[in-house]
């Protein structure tokens, strides 16, 4: 008992210490969130409509602040927590507003099209990267990140193919910047191409890198776009498991990139292949589909999820250094940009071929 008592007494101290380390960064993200929500409120008061949503405002404010101020060590834990854990909780809560019947109603053609788009994009992106002279493993990282879910895919694929840290860093750094540009620029496609909310939701789900970024890119367009975009994006995310397994099988046969000290391929657990928040989202969506989530609690859940998403977008903006574009190199820039343009073209073609309206 004497040995257990100190351990039990130490737990609250550990929790307090953990909370204290998160607080500075969380407060910065919350301050940006309050400012973003205030700007949106002013927009609504003056024009009756928020032309720029709080999610996008939070990203822009975060980027602007990051340009003039680099967060110190004491802020980083809280910012990282906001960008990841807060974001994951928001995604889970979003499941309460979506019925799985919507994805079933989309039919097997759309599901097959999503899978085909992912596979085609991986192959074509890899070809573009190799054509521009990128090393084999770097080309795989860019192709997987572009086709599936950006940083998460890069982080999942890197260990199984034994990628070098510098390749992972370059791929993730550029993806972070390009992902934000996609969130800000993709809604412009709606008036340019005359897309419906349903069509735009499919396009955003097929092209935007991360689930939360899909929210930021679709919320300004409409609820239907957000629901469709999230569902399509989740199908893409679920492709990560099979894709990682395939790369794990071919990893021993990949040619050497001439690197030294490179870690060998290793296996990933189930939690890495299927993130917990995806399972949570699907579970909550299933409960909603079965009528087990009371309608009265849906509005508060949506509001909480919305605020948490804005907090995470603030953290996302704080993590973007626009000057990174000058450091990742011309070939990587061309490869990632070319792969993204290809994905946009393929996605638009899929929408037309399937006759989505």
From TrEMBL:
Keyword Transmembrane helix recorded: yes
Record keywords, A-Z: Cell membrane, Membrane, Transmembrane, Transmembrane helix
Main location: membrane
Pfam families xrefs: Cons_hypoth698 (PF03601)
Localization: Cell membrane
Signal peptide range: none
Transmembrane regions listed in the UniProt entry: 21-42, 48-65, 86-104, 110-128, 140-162, 168-190, 202-225, 231-252, 273-292, 304-325, 332-354
Record membrane topology: Multi-pass membrane protein
Family: Belongs to the UPF0324 family.
Stated name of the protein: Putative integral membrane protein (TIGR00698 family)
Organism in which the protein naturally occurs: Methylorubrum rhodinum
């Amino acid at each position: 008992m004497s040995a257990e008592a100190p351990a039990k007494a130490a737990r609250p101290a550990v929790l307090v210490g953990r909370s204290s380390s998160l607080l500075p960064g969380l407060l910065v993200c919350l301050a940006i969130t309050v400012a973003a929500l205030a700007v949106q409120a002013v927009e609504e008061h003056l024009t009756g409509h928020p032309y720029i949503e709080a999610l996008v405002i939070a990203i822009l404010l975060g980027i602007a602040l990051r340009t003039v101020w680099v967060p110190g060590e004491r802020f980083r834990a809280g910012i990282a927590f906001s960008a990841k854990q807060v974001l994951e909780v928001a995604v889970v809560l979003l499941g309460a507003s979506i019925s799985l019947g919507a994805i079933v109603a989309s039919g097997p053609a759309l599901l097959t099209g999503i899978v085909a788009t992912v596979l085609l994009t991986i192959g074509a992106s890899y070809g573009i990267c190799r054509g521009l002279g990128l090393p084999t493993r770097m080309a795989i990282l860019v192709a997987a990140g572009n086709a599936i879910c950006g940083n998460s895919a890069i982080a999942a694929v890197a260990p199984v193919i034994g990628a070098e840290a510098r390749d992972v860093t370059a791929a993730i750094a550029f993806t972070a910047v390009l992902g934000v540009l996609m969130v800000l620029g993709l809604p412009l496609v709606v008036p340019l191409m005359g897309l419906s909310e349903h069509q735009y939701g499919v396009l955003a789900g097929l092209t935007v890198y991360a689930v939360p970024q899909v929210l930021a890119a679709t919320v300004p367009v409409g609820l239907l776009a957000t629901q469709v975009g999230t569902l399509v994006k989740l199908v893409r995310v679920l492709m990560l498991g099979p894709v990682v397994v395939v790369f794990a099988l071919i990893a021993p046969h990949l040619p050497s990139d001439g690197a030294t000290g490179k870690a060998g391929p290793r296996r990933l657990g189930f939690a890495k292949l299927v993130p917990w928040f995806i399972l949570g989202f699907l579970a909550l969506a299933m409960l909603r589909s079965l009528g087990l989530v009371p309608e009265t609690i849906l509005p508060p859940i949506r509001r909480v999820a919305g605020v948490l998403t804005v907090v995470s977008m603030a953290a996302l903006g704080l993590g973007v250094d626009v000057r990174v574009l000058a450091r990742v190199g011309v070939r990587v820039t061309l490869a990632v940009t070319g792969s993204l343009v290809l994905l946009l073209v393929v996605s638009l073609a899929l929408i037309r071929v399937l006759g989505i309206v």
